[in-house]
Specification:
- This protein is of the alpha+beta class.
- Helix content is 22%, strand content 41%.
- The chain is built from three helices and six strands.
- Strands 1-2-4-5-6-3 form a six-stranded antiparallel β-sheet.
- Strand 4 and strand 5 form a beta hairpin.
- The chain is globular, with a radius of gyration of 15 Å.
- The chain starts with 10 loop residues before the first helix and ends with a strand.
- The relative contact order is 0.20.
- The model has no long low-confidence stretch (mean pLDDT 96).
């Protein structure tokens, strides 16, 4: 398979861009880049719990938006950027501790929009959340 990345991408580049952002604050980590996917994870701890001791659903959405947005940005041509249009999430299983790992894959990479699906699993590999994000592709003004 040919890689979808049109801009130089590496774990170091992604980690550098995450400094001093919500990504770093929540403990989100980028862990793998494949030819057509990205993997990241978020800890399930005091930073990410809701009041009942489960991973906050909004944190799952933050992980999904992080991975989908990064995927869209790095798979777009030079001179293009992306902004989110819509995101949804189906929360399937609660998580009390450990990590939730998300894998983002493109459903559609078009000239004006991209759609990414992010499947999230717990440490046992059980599905916890499925999310889909639609990104608008914008040409940078010169």
């Amino acid at each position: 398979m040919t890689a979808i990345w049109k801009k130089p991408i590496s774990l170091d580049v992604l980690r550098d861009k995450a400094r001093n952002t919500a990504i770093e604050h929540l403990g989100i980590e980028y862990v793998e880049i494949g030819d057509d996917y990205l993997v990241g994870r978020v800890p399930v701890d005091h930073r990410t719990h809701q009041p009942f001791g489960l991973l906050h659903g909004g944190v799952s959405v933050v992980l999904a938006e992080t991975l989908g947005s990064v995927g869209a940005l790095f798979s777009s041509p030079a001179g293009w950027r992306c902004v989110g249009l819509d995101i949804n999430a189906n929360h399937i299983r609660g998580v009390k501790s450990g990590w939730v790992t998300g894998t983002a894959k493109p459903v559609h990479i078009g000239r004006m929009t991209q759609v990414w699906q992010i499947d999230m699993v717990n440490d046992e590999g059980k599905l916890t959340c499925v999310s889909r994000i639609t990104m608008a592709m914008l040409e940078d003004a010169s």
